[in-house]
Amino acid sequence: MVRSLYDCPQVPVGPAGVLCRVVVATHPASTKKSPVGLTREGVVYELFFTKLPQQVFTASDVVELYLHRGAFEPQLSDEDTEQDPDRWCSHSAWGQECWQVISQWVWNLRLELGHQLHPDPVRTTEFAPALPPPSPHAAPASGYAPPEVGLPWKAGRFSGQAFALQPDGTLRCQASQKLLPHEQRREADGSLRVVYGASIHSCRPCPLREQCQWNGSATAKPRQGSRLLHPLQVSSAPLLWRDWSRRVHRRACLQLVRHQRIEVSLLPPAAASSGKADVILSRPQRAHYRLSWQERLARNARASTSGQVTIRLFGVPESFATSLGLATA
Predict the structure, then answer these.
(1) What is the C-alpha separation between 186 and 180, in angstroms, rounded?
(2) How many CB atoms lie within 10 A of CB 57?
(3) Least confident of 60-64, 79-83, 201-205
(4) pTM here?
(5) Can you tell me the distance from the alpha carbon of 121 to that of 242, in angstroms, rounded to the nearest whole number?
(6) CB contact at 8 A, 21 and 49
(7) Domain limits of the chain?
(8) How far apart are CA 56 and CA 238, in angstroms?
């Protein structure tokens, strides 16, 4: 499928009028209804909203990045498979959200530990090649910068700045008349000059003709104006995509956990004092349902005379244990 792209920078979007870059993609409609976009008169229109700057990402790069999002679908499938506690650990929305946060933390922890086991470098993919140098005789691949208007050319006359550019691509003069584009000229530096012209039937009876045209009412031709479009300066460096493998690091961490052996040893406790008095419990204390948090923590606290617990992990690489701050034998 070949799309025609139209790059529209600084477009006000939404009730607040937030300025956003909009890329309009069009392609001919087929006999089957398009699942995305809006079809009008045999043409499918798709809108892409982005904040990516024009000086770095062309309109083609923006569309390609959006269409490339399908590469993340397998990773999202892995997340659904490995992070399913939020479905069965809680029936409430806030509980599922809490478990989702915990699952995401475990996911990131597996990735980090997997990188410690296999510190592979980041993969670099050339997502889009470098742009060739623009030719002065052809339209630039990066598009054009916003149009520029010439400075005033005669005192007391309307300059090109008095003619506002309209959304339909025409100009509107001070008398609310349209100037239609009728010529495009390629300049020597690769710029494109678009020439607009009004209708002579609109200019002759216009009360502002003396301020608008060079010789006033003696001018036999209608008013004309132009807009100069300079090629948009886009970085010529290629667009690089950097990422890691989707499953290697997580699987390396899980494989290490499955092959570990844990040995827990408990030293004999120190001799307890013989002068320990019997504690008389009240009925609420015996029932365990009226204890405060401080009382519960004090009851469950480990005694200072208890023996020391030693945990030994077998099967952990030394470099991996060092990265976690574990003591090695």
Answers:
(1) 18
(2) 21
(3) 79-83
(4) 0.53
(5) 10
(6) yes
(7) 4-72, 144-231, 261-324
(8) 10
